[in-house]
Amino acid sequence: MAWPQATPNYNALLNSFLVREYLSQLTNPRLNTDEQLDARLKLEYELDRIGLLQPTLATGVLRTIQEALAIANATEDLVPVVEWYLDFVSAKDEQWHREVDVEMLARFWRNIKNAILRDRIVVVLLRVDLSRVPAEPWASTVCNLFREPSGLDAEQNLTEHGRALSELLLGEVLASPDSLSGNVPGLRQFGARVLRYCLAARDERVPQRTVDQIFRLLDEVAPEFRAEFERALSL
User: Are residues 217 and 153 in the same domain?
Assistant: First the structure.
């Protein structure tokens, strides 16, 4: 009598070998670009198999990956791993996004100096926060990052950090095809509201001085959206 083939515990397998082996290979200076790419493709092949064979475990894979990343030092040496993680998460749907460890991403943003990668982290955080139920722009992790360091000075002027993050949010908002109005917020409406709550707390109004500076940024790229942003910033 033939016994049925046992279903492999992919979560344990990933946790014990694949993820850690992959992470170590991505940050191994002795491996060339082709070898690192080969390691990446092998892991992604296994992740795709999990999604096909055991879809109920698929989002658990993300938690396993994050457990491995959580114990790693967030330094420049980790940049290739973070780049892969952002690529992986960005290609997934809302079900996966709800499993993303936003505090881990925020830690990467604080400790990694690569400006392009830091911008990518903010964009992923914005999309992840939108997937939350309910989506609460005032609670977005991006608002916390805007204040670390402060995005506004004592006179409510945008600091260099505040201006850079505002420009990034405006760029993402304007690139989204959905509307700034509507009952179900898309990325454009959500991103505009996140920017509003970066500039002032939920129970405060955005100072006019700050609004004027945001509009000057907006006028440089898309003045036709000024009226819509006035509504978003007046919340």
Answer: yes
Whose CA is closest to 197, among 144, 150, 157?
Answer: 144
What phi, psi does 158 have (nearest 5°)?
-65, 130
pTM score of the predicted model: 0.80
Residue 168 and residue 215 in one domain:
yes
CA distances from 132 to 95, 126, 154, 190, 208 (A): 9, 10, 33, 11, 31
Total Cβ atoms within 10 A of residue 235: 14
- Give bridge partners of residue 219 from the DSSP assignment: none
| 235 and 138 belong to one structural domain | yes
**Of 80, 112, 144, which one is at a domain's C-terminal end?**
112
Look at residues 234, 132, 218 and name the one whose alpha carbon lies nearest to residue 169.
218
Beta pairing partners, 152: 158
Domain-embedded: residue 98: yes
Has residue 121 been placed in a domain? Answer: no
CA dihedral for 172, 199, 144, 27, sign (positive or negative): positive
* Token digits of residue 136: 């609460």
Domain with 50 in it: 9-112
Site of tokens 């290979």 = 25
User: Count of domains in the chain?
Assistant: 2
Give residue-wise pLDDT tens across range 176-185.
776 555 555 6
CA gap 163, 158 in Å, rounded: 6
**CA–CA distance, 185 with 162 (Å, rounded to integer):** 24
Helix axes 102-111, 115-131, angle to 10 degrees: 160
pLDDT tens digit sequence for 126-155: 999 988 867 789 999 999 999 988 999 999
Distance CA 108, CA 89 (A): 15
